[in-house]
Amino acid sequence: MNRLNIAVAGVCLAVAVAGYLAVGKPGMPDNPMSERQAGLAEKIKNAPETLTPAETLSRLELATQKRPNDPQPHFFIGEMLRAEGRPEDAARAYQSALRRDENFVPALVALADTLVALSGGGVSPQATRLYGRAYELDQTQVRAGMWAAMGAAQAGDQDKAEQAMRYIYNNLPEGDPRRDRFRGMIEAIGQGDEAAPAP
To answer: Are 84 and 74 spatial neighbours (Cβ–Cβ below 8 Å)?
Structure first.
C-alpha cells in the first residue's frame, strides 16, 4: 500500500513538473510592475468589467502615486475597502482623501457614515461635524444635514437639532416630499405643534 501511494505521488509530481515546463516560464522573473500596469490599462480600455477587485485596487494605488494631491483615488480605495467589510481601513483611506482636500464632500459623508457604522449607529461629535460640514458645502446633501441634526439631538442639544432641522426644511423646495418627513422630525424634537415650522 505504501509503494502504491509513493507511485501515485510520483506520477502526480511528474505531471505537475511537465505541465509547468510546458506552460510556465521556469527561470524567468515575474513581469515588472510597469508591464503589469500596462496590461491593466489595456484591460480597462477594452474590458473594464473584467477587472478584479485586486486589479482595481492596484490601479487606484498607482493613481495615488501619480496624483499625490488628488483626493479621489483615496476616496475610491475607501469605498472598495468598505464594500469588503473593512471599515477601519476604509476610514483611514477617507481620512487620506480629506488630508488632500478637507472640503471633498464625498469623503466627508463617507467617513461620517463609516464612523456611525463603527459606533453601532451612534452619531459621534466627529461624525456630526463631518455631516454638518458636508451639508454646509453642498446643500443638496440633505441626508448629511439630517444626520448632523440627529447628532446634535443625540448629544442632548435639542435646540441646535431643531434649529438645524428647520434650516434644512426651509431650504427644501415647495412640494418636495421630504418636507413632510422633516416636519414630523421637527415636531418630535420640539414640543408638539408649537415646534412645527412656520408656514
So the answer is: no
pLDDT in tens, 15-46: 343 443 344 444 334 445 455 555 545 544 55
- Do 93 and 74 meet the contact criterion of CB atoms below 8 Å apart? yes
The answer to whether the CB of 91 falls within 8 A of the CB of 115 is yes
Alpha helix positions (H), the chain:
2-23, 33-46, 53-66, 71-83, 87-100, 105-118, 125-137, 142-154, 158-171, 178-189
- Contact 109/78 with Cβ under 8 angstroms? no
If 0-12 CB within 10 Å is exposed, 13-18 middle and 19+ buried, where does residue 148 land? buried
In angstroms, rounded to a whole number, what is the distance separating the alpha carbons of residues 90 and 96? 10
The identity of residue 9, as a single letter, is A
158-162-168-173 Cα dihedral, nearest 10 degrees? 160
Contact 110, 75 (CB under 8 A): yes
d(CA 141, CA 146): 9
What predicted TM-score, i.e. pTM, was given to this entire model?
A: 0.71
d(CA 8, CA 186): 76
